[in-house]
Amino acid sequence: MKIATYNVNGVNGRLPVLLRWLEESAPDLVCLQELKAPEEKFPLQAIRDAGYHAIWHGQKSWNGVAILSRYGLPAEVTRVLPGDPEDLHSRYIEAEVEGITLGCLYLPNGNPAPGPKFDYKLRWFERFTMHAAELFASGKPVVLAGDYNVIPTEHDVYKPERWVDDALFLPETRAAFEKLLSQGWTDALRKLYPNETIYTFWDYFRNAFGRNAGLRIDHFLLSPAVDKRLKEAGVDKFVRGWEKSSDHAPVWIELKP
């Protein structure tokens, strides 16, 4: 089973890129972030024609998450992160599919920091950590995948000294990620490639992709039941080089039966 996560940065504007990648890479399950489309504008027919069923939680102009599946329609569990009924951002969707609980998330960016947006990021992170603890305690196979907007360590960013004041790299953000991992989750890419330079995002400015001046902010966290099935993981970096591509590249894991 191949599971992927991809911040598409606009599902309709970059639909040709998404469809090309789906055809070439053929993941079985896909978590998408930053749809930037209201519910009714999700390109369901094009996704179906590509061989996928889909559930999604859209929002006009911003945010938006979706889960695609080649196995049939995912059984949706929730499309709201618990803990704040007044939070209307479309940033989380969770489903059961092929015996796995799959949580797809788009954690807030948090910039500029300090400020209200950073405060919201940390509150959202705390809510997510509480929900993750419940999922972990269930003992079920769980995958939490998406754009975490967290640079975990200096090894995950080109020239870390340039990011010390950014919400993605501030000590509070990194501490929140460490707190989450301490529940027992496995960072899939770092398990398989502990010392390699791996990036999943390259800015559109200053030829960042050409210079490989990137960040690793898209992550797969696995519960023990999934961790023991982990076979391979990687980043489809080549997709970032396609015309009119997202500033993120797809990230994927492959699981043994």
Structure, explained:
The chain has helices at 15-25, 44-49, 116-137, 171-181, 188-192, 224-227, 237-240; strands at 2-7, 29-33, 53-57, 65-69, 75-78, 92-97, 100-106, 142-147, 186-187, 201-202, 214-215, 218-222, 230-235, 251-255. A 6-stranded mixed β-sheet has the order 3-4-2-1-14-13. It has 257 residues and is an alpha+beta fold. The relative contact order is 0.16. Helix 3 (116-137) links the parallel strand 7 and strand 8. The chain contains 7 helices and 14 strands. It has a single domain (2-255), classed as Deoxyribonuclease I, Chain A (4-Layer Sandwich), CATH 3.60.10.
Walk me through the topology:
Layout lengths: L1 E6 L7 H11 L3 E5 L10 H6 L3 E5 L7 E5 L5 E4 L13 E6 L2 E7 L9 H22 L4 E6 L23 H11 L4 E2 H5 L8 E2 L11 E2 L2 E5 L1 H4 L2 E6 L1 H4 L10 E5 L2
Parallel strand pairs: 1-2, 7-8
Antiparallel strand pairs: 1-14, 2-4, 3-4, 5-6, 6-7, 8-12, 9-12, 10-11, 13-14
Helix pairs in contact: 3-4
- What radius of gyration results from the CA coordinates? 17 Å
Distance between the termini: 7 Å
- The largest sheet has its strands arranged as 3-4-2-1-14-13
Described by the principal axes of the CA atoms, the overall outline is: globular
Strand fraction equals: 25-35%
The portion of residues assigned to helices is: 10-25%
CATH C-level category:
Alpha Beta
Q: Helix tally?
A: 7
Give the strand tally.
14
Mean pLDDT: 98
Give the H and E element order.
EHEHEEEEEHEHEHEEEHEHE
List its salient traits.
257 residues, globular, alpha+beta, 25% helix, Deoxyribonuclease I, Chain A, six-stranded mixed β-sheet, 7 helices, double-stranded DNA 3'-5' DNA exonuclease activity
